[in-house]
Structure formats: structure tokens, C-alpha cells
Design goal:
The complex is a heterodimer of chains A (129) and B (616). Chain A is an alpha/beta fold and 129 residues long. Chain A has five helices and five strands, in the order βαβαβαβαβα. The chains are: A alpha/beta (129), B alpha+beta (616). Chains A and B meet through α1, α4, β5 and α5 of A and α2, α3, α7, α8 and α9 of B.
């Protein structure tokens, strides 16, 4: 199944870095959002989005709240979510895992690490079905 | 790093787009920080502001780490650590902490500059990092009480952690593979500081949502913009200027043709085509002008920091208020106006606003207010710098000017208050009794005036002794194309910039009087000195005894009014300013030239210089 990514980050540069990494991995379908609220709007407007990569620390609606909102939604509740975080914020990771994020990746990451994370999430999802 | 001149990541063609985006974004963030940091010092209890500042540091740290910008990441990280302590309540924002944050900020700025200009990080950061690190450890050691609290928290958290890790493990296998456990343990001691704050931030964030509704919009706007080389914009403006000249020529040909061939189909067609070209050219000109417009906030935003530093140096308390930062003007003007404004602001801080003690004594608020504002007025932008300081005493100015021999004592007695105040713009005038660190560096108001005048602007001062000073700078929105009034002098056409023209009179010869051998006319209830452009530009004046009527163009420079004697009025036109070229260089009284519709070259007068010559 072709993946369509939603990349959520308040930094445009960060979004570009993620998109670039994903392009290097051969993916080509991306939607971007600048904060959690924007992400929810994009998600509800486009049902073909099937993978979310989100930053944690954002204005308006944080990554955690975004994950919670996605999980509590009947339609998109199972959308895989990968969280991008910085070193040394283990409580975030714990919080995110509680909120049922699928995996996390620490900045700065390489495309190879990103691929690994995505594959892990997909494998877990595939195994579940 | 010392041997390698360019960071390979920064010149990697694959990274070009990201690097550019990084530079634009980081610049924007630094601009915001410039304002926010100073604001933060004033409102240390504003957690939202603190969080926002923290997030800015956080974003730069994150993105710079991807580009392998170790120094920038390092400095930003230290700044972030300090901000973390503030957010946790482990430290209270003192001036020393603020100085450290500003130091980090300055380094970040120079690093970004080096990254943009030289594609490297050749900036010395060791000392800054050392200072920041020692500050952080001082904060840690000084806060013994909070340390103890932290330990309690830590143990609580440890319990929580092991619990969660367990659930996590059973929840998802993938986590085990990424060795989160090891990562978390290793982070425990070193980076404990960051934990609680992240949570705290999450808690405070929902509150922000209302105020920040506009934020996504702004981010989107940024996405829709592209970076264009300024040279290309200049080129575009140049081409449009030429097009305006061509359009003028076409209009001329059209009207000449219409005269001879009125009513023919060909002349009607030519008329229609000319009309269309005319309209489109106007629109194109407008759009190109708009493309070059930049918000004056770009300049204004630097001032809170400047005022903060200056007032600390001078032991004054000053609150800066900025209004109309959305007002736009041409990029060239933005660059040129910065230095004069800095000088004016320095002056206000140094000579205008009194020390807190002095202010209290006078029954004023110990904190002075400095207001910077900008607004549009027709084709001009008005920038005002206003303070509520001690104002300028006309008597002091007058005596100073006389004692320095700038004006005679008799002349001084005749001057109005306005005229006296404007004496501060005379070369060689400086009222500072003590030369301080801040202003009085030998660059006086005359340089400010010269710079403003170079931009075809006007500067004016208004002051009430004891209550404050207001400096008003009026600038044209653009430099290249201006509306001009075309007049005849002898048999030549010349252009007077329309923004200086107040009105046009036709005066009977008998109504021209002479005061001190200088011609004047009475205009309503004031006396208007007449200036002969002919005499200044051509060296002599043709005395036509038969002439009964004299045309006079009344112009205003600052608060002064003059009547320019001209022989005829031709009309009003958008003119494109062309320099006279290197061969002629600078000619006194001439701002440049323009090409008219019929192909002839016409001089544009520089009124300010012209009047200067006239006054001798």
C-alpha cells in the first residue's frame, strides 16, 4: 500500500528535512501541517493520509494532544503515528507511549533510522491484521 | 573546522533547499527573539512568552543539529537549558541571566551570519559556552532547596518510569528494539532537568490556543513566499523604469499623431492601444514597487534590544513602544534609514530621557517612554521618534548656535521657536554637554539630516521643554519613480519633486517686495522668500521688464516655506530618476535627470541643495 504522510511541525525547515528524508526512501506523497490543530484539519479533509509523523513541541496544539485526538477518533484512530523528539525528553516519550504513539525517533536522525522506524510500525500493523 | 572553510553539509547541492529554508526560518526566529527576549525581561511572569522563547531556541537547536551545525546547536542548547531553569522556577530572571541569554542570542546571530555568508561556523563560541555553562552550574548550586525538591521528584519519577516501561514493553515490541530503556537510563542523570518542563509546557499550551489562532495563518504565508535575489528585483525595477519612459514616449507620439489625423480609424486604434499600455504599465509599476516593499518592523524590531542595552548603560529606565511596524516601504530605504533611526533613538535615550531619580523629582513616571511609530501619508511614510524626556530648550539651542558662530545674535532674535529647534541640524552643532559613551560620538544631527535628505526625505523636530521631544522623518515610499511637477525656467524644462510642492501662485510683479535685498512675497499672513532657480542654475537672471506676472511654486522643506520663481508651468508626470552618470558626477542642486516623452532629457532639481545654495 502506498503511504501518504502527514508531516506535522511548526518549523518549515524541520518539515523539509523530514520530507527530504522520506523522498530519499522513495516515498512521494506528503501533506504538511504547522501544528496539531492544522494537522487535525488536514486529516479530516484527506482520508487517504495513512501515516503521521509529528513533532512534539508545537504552538496551538502539541504533538501529545494531536496523538490523543487521533486515537480518540473513530475513523482515523488506527493511523500510525511516529513522533519526532529531541534527546533527553524521556517523559515526553513515556507520555507519548501512554497516548499510544506507535514509535518515536530522536533528532537528528538519518533516513536509514527513519526507514527502520517506519518499517517497524508497518510490520507491527501488518502482524496485527 | 579551522582548516575547512566550508561546512560540507551547507554546500551540498542536495541540501540547498533545506539550508535556505533553515536560514530564512532561523532569521525570522532570531528577529522574533530580538523583541521577545527584551520583552521577557519586562514581564518575567509571562509564562506564555517564556514558553514561546523556549520553543524558538528549541526549534533552532533541532534544525541546526540536522545540518551538523555543532556550534550553533551547542550555544542554542545552553540557552535552552537556562530557559528551562526559568520555566521550572529553579531560577529567577535577573539582569545577569538576561545578559547571558542575550549573549547566547548574539552568538546565534553571528553564527547564522557566518553560515549564510561563508557557509561555515567560524565564530568563536568557546568563551560564550563556558560562561553559559558556568552560569548554569551556578544556578544549580545556588538552588540547593530546589535541588532537594528535584531529588524527591526524581525518585517519584523513577518509580513512575519503571512502571511505564513495563507497560510499554508489553504494549509494543518495537520499543524494545530501539533500546529505549538504555536511552532513558542514560538520560536520567544528565538531562533530568528537561523532563518536568516539557510536561509543564504541555500543560500551559492549551491556554495559548486562543491568542495564537493567527499563527497557522502566518506560517502558511511563509510557505507561500519565495526568496528572490535583490539584484533581480533591482533589475526588474530598472526595466519597469524604462517601460515607464517608453510609455511616456508612446503617449506623446499618440497625442501628436491624433492632432494631425483626428477621427481616423488608425488614430483611434493607436489611442486604444496606448491607453491599454498606459494602464498596464501603471499596474506593473505598482506591483513591482510592492514586491520591493518590506515592513518597517524589520528595522523597528531591533530597537527594543538597543534601548534595553543603552538604558542599562545609562542607568535609565525606558519603556519602548512600537507602533505601525506593519507599514511598508522600499527595501533600499529600509536599509538606509536604519542608521539615522539608531542615532535618533540613541539621542533620546542619552539626552532626552532623564534618570529615574530626576524623573521622580520632577513628578514624572520614573520609567521614561520612547515611542517609535510609522504610518503612511499619501506617497510618503512618516516615522516618528518621540520621548517624554526633558525636551529641548530653545534658549539653550539659541545661545549655543550663537556662541558657536553658526548664526548671528541678531538673526537668533528673529527666529521662531520652530526655526530655533531646527538649528540642531546644522553641521557643527552638538548640545551634549558631556560626551557620553552612548551618543555624542561626533556624529551629529546634521549627519542624520544629510542621510534623510539623501533619501529625499524631510526631518523635523518638535519639542516642549520638560515634556519631551518628537522627531518626525518623512520619506518617499520609493526612490526610483516619483511624481514630478514640470516647470519652465528660461527655455528649459525642469522637474520639481511633487512631494515638496504645496501650491502654485501667480503673483503680480508689484507684489514682490524686497527685504535685505532679497525678494519676498506676502502670502496670506506670512512672508515667503523667493528663490530664483534661474540664477542658481544658469548663473544669471534674464530681467524681462515687460513681465507682469510671475509664477511661483510654493515648496515646503521641513517647516520652511519658499517660493520658487518659474517662467511657466508644464504639467505633472511620473518621472523616472536616472543618475547623470560618472562623467558629470554630482552637480549641486540637481538630483538626477529623466527622459521625457519626446525623448528630451530634463533635470530633476534637488530642492534641499538648491535652497541651501540660495541661503548662501
Amino acid at each position: 500500500m502506498a503511504l501518504k504522510f502527514l508531516i506535522v511541525d511548526d518549523s518549515q525547515t524541520m518539515r523539509r528535512i523530514v520530507v527530504n528524508s522520506l523522498k530519499n526512501l522513495g516515498y512521494e506523497d506528503f501533506v504538511e501541517a504547522s501544528d496539531g490543530k492544522d494537522a487535525l484539519l488536514k486529516l479530516s479533509a484527506d482520508e487517504t493520509i495513512n501515516f503521521v509523523i509529528t513533532d512534539w513541541n508545537m504552538p496551538v496544539l502539541s504533538g501529545l494532544e494531536l496523538i490523543k485526538a487521533i486515537r480518540s477518533d473513530a475513523k482515523m484512530g488506527n493511523t500510525p503515528v511516529l513522533m519526532v523528539t529531541t534527546r533527553g525528553v524521556k517523559d515526553d516519550i513515556i507520555e507519548a507511549l501512554k497516548a499510544k504513539v506507535n514509535n518515536y525517533v530522536v533528532k537528528p536522525f538519518t533516513p536509514a533510522i527513519l526507514r527502520e522506524k517506519i518499517d517497524q510500525i508497518l510490520a507491527a500493523a501488518g502482524g496485527g491484521n | 573546522m579551522a582548516k575547512v572553510n566550508q561546512n560540507p553539509m551547507l554546500i551540498d547541492p542536495d541540501m540547498k533547499e533545506i539550508v535556505e529554508s533553515f536560514i530564512v526560518e532561523t532569521k525570522e526566529i532570531l528577529e522574533k527573539l530580538d523583541v521577545d527576549l527584551v520583552e521577557m525581561e519586562k514581564r518575567p511572569d509571562d509564562t506564555e512568552l517564556l514558553n514561546s522563547v523556549f520553543r524558538h531556541f528549541h526549534t533552532i537547536k533541532g534544525t541546526s543539529s540536522f545540518l551538523g551545525l555543532d556550534k550553533l546547536t551547542g550555544v542554542t542548547h545552553k540557552g535552552e537549558d537556562i530557559l528551562n531553569k526559568l520555566r521550572k522556577g529553579e531560577a529567577i530572571l535577573t539582569s545577569d541571566i538576561m545578559d547571558a541569554l542575550l549573549k547566547a542570542f548574539d552568538k546565534m546571530k553571528s553564527l547564522l551570519y557566518s553560515i549564510e555568508e561563508f557557509q561555515n561556523e567560524d565564530v568563536e563560541v568557546k568563551n560564550t559556552i563556558k560562561e553559559l555553562t558556568s552560569l548554569i552550574s551556578t544556578l544549580e548550586n545556588g538552588g540547593k532547596v530546589s535541588e532537594a525538591k528535584k531529588n524527591v521528584k526524581k525518585s517519584n519519577k523513577a518509580g513512575k518510569k519503571s512502571e511505564t516501561v513495563k507497560t510499554k514493553k508489553s504494549d509494543s515490541e518495537s520499543i524494545k528494539q530501539v533500546e529505549s530503556e538504555e536511552e532513558i537510563t542514560s538520560l536520567e542523570e544528565a538531562e533530568d532537568a528537561e523532563d518536568e518542563q516539557e510536561q509543564e509546557l504541555v500543560k500551559t499550551e492549551p491556554k495559548r490556543s486562543d491568542e495564537n489562532k493567527l499563527k497557522p495563518e502566518i506560517t502558511k504565508k511563509v510557505e507561500n513566499s519565495i526568496r528572490v535575489d535583490v539584484e533581480r528585483l533591482d533589475e526588474l525595477l530598472n526595466i519597469v523604469s524604462e517601460l515607464v519612459l517608453g510609455r511616456n514616449r508612446l503617449a506623446q507620439v499618440n497625442s501628436e499623431f491624433a492632432l494631425e489625423n483626428e477621427g481616423t480609424k488608425f488614430s483611434r486604434d493607436l489611442f486604444d492601444a496606448t491607453k491599454q499600455i498606459d494602464l498596464m504599465t501603471n499596474e506593473l509599476q505598482l506591483v513591482v514597487m510592492k514586491t520591493r516593499m518590506i515592513k518597517i518592523g524589520k528595522v523597528f524590531n531591533k530597537f527594543p534590544r538597543l534601548v534595553r542595552d543603552l538604558s542599562r548603560e545609562a542607568n535609565k529606565q525606558i519603556n519602548i513602544v512600537i507602533k505601525g511596524e506593519e507599514t511598508e516601504l522600499d527595501k533600499t530605504l529600509i536599509e538606509e534609514i536604519n542608521d539615522p533611526l539608531v542615532h535618533l533613538v540613541r539621542n533620546s535615550v542619552d539626552h532626552g530621557i532623564e534618570t529615574p531619580d530626576k524623573r521622580k523629582e520632577l513628578g514624572k513616571n520614573p520609567t521614561g517612554t520612547l515611542t517609535l511609530s510609522a504610518e503612511h501619508e499619501g506617497n510618503n511614510i512618516i516615522i516618528t521618534i518621540e520621548d517624554d524626556g526633558k525636551g529641548i530648550d530653545p534658549e539653550v539651542i539659541k545661545n549655543k548656535a550663537v556662541s558657536k558662530g553658526l548664526i548671528s545674535a541678531e538673526r537668533a532674535r528673529e527666529l521662531s521657536k520652530q526655526e530655533i529647534l531646527n538649528l540642531i541640524f546644522l553641521p557643527g552643532f552638538s548640545t551634549a554637554e558631556v560626551v557620553t559613551n552612548i551618543s555624542g560620538r561626533g556624529v551629529g544631527m546634521d549627519v542624520v539630516k544629510t542621510n534623510v535628505t539623501k533619501l529625499r526625505g524631510i526631518i523635523n523636530v518638535d519639542s516642549t521643554t520638560g515634556a519631551g521631544t518628537k522627531i518626525i522623518v518623512k520619506l518617499p515610499l520609493t526612490l526610483a519613480i516619483i511624481p514630478g511637477m514640470i516647470v519652465k525656467v528660461r527655455d528649459q524644462s525642469i522637474v520639481i519633486p511633487l512631494n515638496t510642492v504645496l501650491e502654485v501662485l501667480r503673483v503680480h510683479r508689484e507684489n514682490i517686495y524686497s527685504i535685505n535685498q532679497k525678494p519676498v512675497i506676502k502670502m496670506r499672513d506670512s512672508v515667503l522668500p523667493l528663490v530664483s532657480v534661474e540664477k542658481i542654475l544658469f548663473g544669471s537672471e534674464d530681467q524681462d521688464e515687460d513681465k507682469i506676472w510671475q509664477y511661483v511654486v510654493v515648496v515646503g522643506i521641513a517647516e520652511k516655506r519658499y517660493g520658487i520663481e518659474v517662467d511657466g508651468l508644464v504639467g505633472q508626470k511620473e518621472v523616472v530618476i536616472k543618475s547623470l552618470g560618472n562623467y558629470f558626477g554630482k552637480i549641486q542642486g540637481i538630483a538626477g535627470s529623466t527622459i521625457m516623452g519626446d525623448g528630451s532629457v530634463v533635470m530633476i532639481v534637488d530642492l534641499n541643495e538648491l535652497l541651501h545654495i540660495a541661503e548662501g
